[in-house]
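The authors assume throughout that readers already know how a fold can be written as discrete tokens. A single example would do more here than another paragraph of explanation. An entry of this sort, consisting of the sequence and the corresponding backbone structure tokens, reads as follows:
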Amino acid sequence: MKPFFSLLGRYALTLSAVMVATFLAFVMWKYYAQTPWTRDGRVRADVVQIAPDVSGPINRVAVSDNQWVNRGDVLYSVDPRWLQLAVASAQADVDAKRHEMQMRQDAAARRARIKGVISGEDLQQTDSAASIAAANYQAALAALELARLNLSHATVRSPVAGYVTHLRLNAGDYATAGVTKVAIIDASSFWVVGYFEETKLRHIRVGNTAQIALMGFEPAITGHVESIGHGIGDSNDETGGLGLPDVEPTFSWVRLAQRIPVRIHIDSLPQGVELMAGLSASVSITPRGDITSWSGMFKHATDSITAFTGTLNSAAKEQSTAQ
């Protein structure tokens, strides 16, 4: 009988191990399938494209590629000489228009004192000339302010604190108003975007804690879900030549889950981690509710299995001793 019970014990132990392994595999698969995480993450940042407000040759570049700049630091300057001449010309025009306005106003005042001698039509023409001279003077003042403003914009400064990127600017290049010459990565604007499968979006909520692992850096970054994207592109939404929908004639029967962008706000940055736009990241979301219960279930099952295995080992030892 003892060999029979010994054999039965071995079979029971083997069967228990298989059941435990199956249960563990199921729990781990369920946890993996429902836990929202992705390796498809990217570090993003706002890039400020800086264009000059005036045109002209560049006479000085004050920064170098990848350099850190503070807000208000000089980036480059446009040759101001003809802008200074424009200010001088506008100032001379203001002086001329002021003298003309004063002359017209004095003439109108003199004629008003002798209005009984001259005709009313002559008085009206004199008043109109004085009004036109005053308007011309105001226009000259506006032109002077514009010339001064253009002169002040000859020196281009950084509007944000950050890093100069992809600088391809040299003294002697021609700057055209409205055309970007320098781009600055805003150092205060870094965030992470994770592209999550649509099957896992129901477990993600705004405010959920996120763990971010950057490729190349060991410390994990802590953040939280800031927003969830509400749309992605659709290739079947293009418009054909006749204005009709351009629908793909073929359909792939193997349908992969679409990936939706989820914006992650960075709460804390570990020491030694330097953010750069475009870095690859793995993002794991800690959801509330059912996934948490699965995590607790997994821990409870692991503890129970450990205790059960210990009991079986003790029984086997006792049986060996009895034999």
About this structure: Helices lie at 2-34, 81-113, 120-152, 290-322.
